[in-house]
Design brief:
about 70% helix; 4 helices; about 0% strand; about 80 residues; mainly alpha
Length: about 80
């Protein structure tokens, strides 16, 4: 078992890079392991993908601010819902 591959980081990664990646994976586990938060996340992800594919240039990568906006919106919806972890 190669833990670098599991985390998706190269072997020469810094401790900060490993910790950041581990935090991302931990956050994903928290959201996706709860059926309610997973459903909420899936809805927001679907909205994000729909808006991205309706853009004038489908081949253009999504603007970073749009992705961050959807992540922030998801976190706010989660924080104010009854399903907050």
């Amino acid at each position: 078992m190669n833990y670098y591959e599991i985390l998706g980081v190269p072997q020469n990664s810094t401790l900060k890079e490993i910790n950041d990646r581990f935090k991302q994976i931990s956050d994903a586990h928290i959201i996706l392991s709860n059926p309610d938060t997973r459903t909420a996340y899936d809805k927001i992800l679907t909205e994000y993908i729909k808006r991205r594919t309706c853009s004038p240039s489908r081949n253009a990568p999504p603007k970073k601010e749009y992705k961050e906006e959807y992540i922030e919106e998801f976190n706010m919806r989660l924080a104010f819902s009854d399903n907050y972890i």
